[in-house]
Amino acid sequence: MSTAPAAPSADRSIELVRLLKLNERREPSVVQVATWVGLGIIEGRLRPGEDLNSVELSHRFNSSRTPVREALMLLESEGLVEIRARKRPRVAAFTLERVREIYFVRQHLLALVGGLVTEKATDDELIELRARLAQMEADAAGGDVDGYFWGHVALQERMTQIAGNETLKGILDSLALRTLILRHASLAQPGRLAASVADQLRIFEAIQDRDGELAAMLLSRATVAALRAIEESDWSQRQSSD
Questions:
Q1: Full DSSP string of 178-242
Q2: Closest Cα partner for 162 from 108, 204, 116?
Q3: CB-facing half-sphere around the CA of 53: CA atoms within 13 A
Q4: Rounded Cα gap, residues 170 and 49, in angstroms
Q5: Predicted confidence band at 21 (pLDDT cuts at 50, 70, 90)?
């Protein structure tokens, strides 16, 4: 297992903590390990097929191996880790077919979100969304892939809240951890930050203009563009070779 940099700032773990329901757990060691490994997988520091050494992790977090095993099992249940009999746990890999299936579903779900947000967003909520976009623009201009990525994650989470459909939000959440890995991989491709910023600004303008049909179409197209970036990158080749 490679040596990773210091843990990301706390705000970058919020979505992972929420999706894994880590705030409901009493064991700090489980939370620490699951957060560190989960963020490492999502942000690409831990690569597909890479071994996850339980002994190294227990030393890193000064814990027994029991909370490490629990954390890895939790991540396995969400599709981020593979645990095989008589072998070390490892970072899960995705087939390109699986990636396409996930993005096909996500494309149509986000189109629904776009239409609902356009219909329901208040003026104050539009101001909030624009402020989030401004920070994302700054992160993109500075080449901060991780900062932009987590800002984008927070923006779409806020949009699903504004959409106000709990069933739709629940389905998106059920796919979320798998899509976070793919979304980060897409944004890390050359030229994708600038293209994504342009997409998000057009989507916001459609929402602000109360054009739900256009917002839905733009969200759908942006999702397809993200998939194309993955398909054309060496990321998909690394997945298939692991």
A1: HHHHHHHHHHTSTTHHHHHHHHHHHHHHHHHTT-HHHHHHHHHHHHHHHHHHHHTSHHHHHHHH-
A2: 116
A3: 7
A4: 29
A5: confident
**Residues 151, 156, 157: CA angle, nearest 5 degrees:** 95
State both tokens at 191.
């030229």
pTM over 0.85: no
Tell me the backbone φ, ψ of residue 26, rounded to 5 degrees.
-95, -15
Centroid of chain to Cα 68? 22
Query: In whole angstroms, how far apart are CA 45 and each of 131, 147, 213?
Result: 29, 15, 38
Helices 145-163 and 166-187, packing angle to 10 deg: 160
pLDDT at 2 over 50: no
Give how far Cα 233 sits from Cα of 65, 71, 105, 179, 192, Å.
Answer: 37, 31, 21, 17, 11
What are the pLDDT digits (tens) for 139-170? 999 999 999 999 999 999 999 999 999 999 99
CA 86 from centroid of its chain's CA atoms: 30
The enclosing H or E element of 187 equals helix 166-187
User: In the structure encoding, which two tokens stand for residue 32, read together?
Assistant: 């620490």
Look at residue 12 in the predicted model and tell me its pLDDT: 74
